[in-house]
Amino acid sequence: MQRVFWLIVIVTLGMFSLTACSTTSASAPEAQAVSGDTAQHGQMEHNMEHAGDEHGAGMAHAHVDPPSEYAQLTNPFAGDAVAIAAGQTIFDTNCATCHGPQGQGDGLAATGLNPKPANLADRQMLDSLSDGYLFWRVSEGGALAPFNSAMPAWKATLSEEQRWQVISYLRSLGR
Ligand code: HEC
Asked: Which of 29, 82, 138, 143 has CA atoms 20 to 30 A from the CA of 13?
């Protein structure tokens, strides 16, 4: 009788450890596949740690100064209710798939992306980013160092006005 008891204990423990193993190993190849070459990955991790220091553990992605042609730009539609409404439509159509319906980085297409889409409803983070920075990121996307991300470049798809409108909307998120 005692032997049967121990057998059950051993089998149960075995099943638990198998489940634990398959959960951890499932995400590893995926992360490797997306992160590209190891040198880049190392750099990215460095930046991610840095960003984490500034914005807390949830904000694991890079922030660097925008190029000079973007740095001084300011939003001509800041706080404009009409621009915010237009920006919401642009966001729902083009951005929510990755950034999520409320901008929290949890869109349907976010699964498997590394780095993950930013949480654009993080008020503290958005307040720390300049208009020029946001306009740069929306215009040029993430296919450049240090970002190396799936964030698309929108300058060919959205007019300057539309990019500012969507930025007005981002600044209204979480308020
Ligand atoms: C294919 C998925 C995808 C779509 C669609 C997408 N993004 Fe992103 N976006 C990302 C990812 C991933 C990041 C995080 C990595 C990075 O900063 O490049 C990001 C980052 C950003 C950032 C930078 C945030 C920061 O903290 O530096 C902004 C701003 C942004 N997205 C705005 C938008 C807007 C506006 C749209 C729609 C016009 C959009 N994104 C559409 C994937 C996406």
From this structure: 29
Phi first, then psi: what are they for 38, rounded to 5°?
Answer: -70, -35
Q: Is 105 found in the same domain as 58?
A: yes
Total domain count, the chain = 2
Pocket of ligand 1 (CB under 6 A): 61, 63, 94-95, 97-99, 109, 113, 115, 117-118, 125, 134, 137-138, 142, 147, 149-152, 154, 166
- Best residue among 63, 99, 135 to mutate for probing ligand 1's pocket (most ligand atoms within 8 Å of CB) is 99
pTM of the model: 0.74
Segment 59-100, tens digit of pLDDT: 457 899 999 999 999 999 999 999 999 999 999 999 999 999
Is the same domain home to 44 and 27? no
Query: How many whole angstroms from 66 Cα to the centroid of ligand 1?
Result: 15
For residue 153, give its domain range.
38-172
Cα(91)–Cα(78) distance, integer angstroms: 16
The Cα 49–Cα 56 span in angstroms is 10
